[in-house]
Fold this protein.
Amino acid sequence: MSQETKPDYFHEALYSSLHKGVLSAVIVSCGFFAWRHLWSLLVVALAAEVLFLLITPRSPAFRSACDAKAAAEHARKRAALLEDIARRLSPAAKLRYEGVTKLRDKILDTLRTQPQAAQLEQLWEPRLRMLREWALRLLVAIDAARLTARDQQSLEEGIRQAEQELEAAGTDEAARQIKESKLKLAKDKLERAVRVRQRREAAIVQLEAVEGVLEDIVSQGLKSGEEDAFAGRLELIGSQVQALGDSLESLSKDETASYQLDSAKKLAV
């Protein structure tokens, strides 16, 4: 997902529950002061409302609270999007995604038992979250790029049929041009499908490499408890995340648009 937009602090202040209380008090006060002809106090009440809307949106504490609220809402929407995309994966892809998630959870659980657990978790959690999201995007692309044996046979049959039609056209130049175009289109389709299958296979290898990194961290990297070892493995995860992104971009060039692909693009960071 693209970088989060900062909240509109004035809008948040205007529609906050605190302002609703202040505004109610100001309205009641103004009504009372107007009834008693206490015009100076009425002006003070109105000034309090204006000052609230001028000062509150600029308050660091209020802004921090708004930022935290926006971050929580962003995380909730992102989690819902992840769940929705994962639910549409093929059974095999779903299993792999669940496997990556379990490895991520194991690493975080182990980090929480280490000295300086809070700092380590703060360092690792965003990278592991990004890795999991890239893995999901890659699995979506892999699903969309499936080419079954029947699909390939159908494309090859289309080429054979186009070749037969070209041969049957004989010396009719106009007919031959039409059949040659049809044959070229059929060959292009097969070539494109084979290219997607090759990229899909490369993407699967890349995903397996990431799974291997995570498994290695779980089985070996967390035993030492040395911060340098953690940092080194973190760098390794970062490079794997980048490689996942490159594989996905390459793979997606030959993809057909679908809900999953469009939704997965929303996870881009």
The chain is about 80% helix and 0% strand. Confidence is low (pLDDT under 50) at residues 255-261.
